[in-house]
Predict the structure.
Amino acid sequence: MGNKGQSFYQQVNDSVMKSLEGSNIPEGVAESIRLCDSLLRVSFPIERDDGSIETITGWRAQHSHHRYPTKGGIRFAPIANEDEVMALASLMTYKCAIVDVPFGGAKGGVRIDRRKYSKAELARITRRYTYELASRNFIGPGVDVPAPDYGTSSTEMAWIADAYTSFTSDKLTALACVTAKPIELGGVRGRTEATGLGVAYGLEALFERADFVKKYGFTPGLDGKKVAVLGFGNVGYHAALFMAELGATVVAIGEWNGFIEDQKGIDVDALKAHFNEHKTFEGYSKGRFSKDGEQAVAIDCDILIPAALEGHIHEDNCHTVKAKCIAEAANGPLTNEAIDYFQTKNVLVVPDVYINSGGVIVSYFEWVKNLAHVRYGRLNREFEGATNRRMMKLMENLTGQQIADEDRLILSQGANEKDLVFSGLKDSMVSGLDQILETMVDDNLPTIRLAAFRLAINKIAKSYYARGVFP
Ligand code: GLU
């Protein structure tokens, strides 16, 4: 797909090398960071519902052990392969480093088209894959912690948690072996929304930088900015929903089998309800429907958010893009040729390693919750509420004025788990952006992508130096 024969893994490594041009990191150190540490391939049999036996192939790549555990999703996709998991594991390492999530990067892939399997068959595949990982020490709360990715969800994570818990003798920490679990199984509130919400928080913070966005021809703020989202899975849906909540106008949403465009603004939840029922946008009562999902990249908008698979925008279609900002909500949706092209056109590309890190940020919160065995807010919620109530009374006595009922209601309650997770997510996105933009200025780098990679490599190298790995 227009990538000059470079594999996905080579493309990621290319980005790393480009970001280090002119830096003082020796090539030997850069290479040891860049290359994937461990790769496991497994083949295992499962029984189909008709009694036949099928062999399934899967992988797990652990890219960097500069921190433990390693962390990253598992995808179920017919195109899953070794190169892809290594590339995606690498992106996880850099992503975690940028937003200060103390994990190395990993990624898993199982080569299946999930639509061809029953729920019971998917459960057997997931459980057996988990046993394969566990028996080779490729999963565990302190070793390697999976999460969902393309083609998986909290349902598979629950099966993984159950299979791992039954396998391990360490029951106390077992649930921290995987994240994005259902709440009943130790999941954290806000994880489902996290990646899409992180995209919205990251763009909100970026568009508040008036001087910075002006260089790309933008006025500050998200208000009224026209947004098109490619991919209406968990990430695309939540990105669209929260962008609209933050004031942007969602003018188009695309999927592989078509898109809807409505320059007046799309009701994201209404469209989602239609899509869930019919598996297509066709027949939706508002906007313009086109069957040609590929054409959605060329929609008239300010911000384009590719939120599906890698390689979506490449050298053959990048010229059709009208947006002046592209936020990579998916992993690797732009090929390096497309990235280079957008740089020549002064298009603001917000890279995956930063903008889609919301998922792993909240996975980190879930992992901490599982190890601590306590819900966020459980100890301080009532205390905070009571403190606020006392303060309000005091203020009313001092000023002789009544606090409005709606303010009283909000302030009377302390923060619950979701409030804390969302505010922790926002704080992490803002702090990640601050560090990237600082690196961009300090190291005189031309793009956010190069600065993001440079920042990540610097942090990882420092942790190796601190441990005396490099002299
Ligand atoms: N699969 C997601 C990603 O690519 C989430 C990973 C995680 O939560 O560990 O970032």
Notes: Residues 417-442 form the longest helix (26 residues).
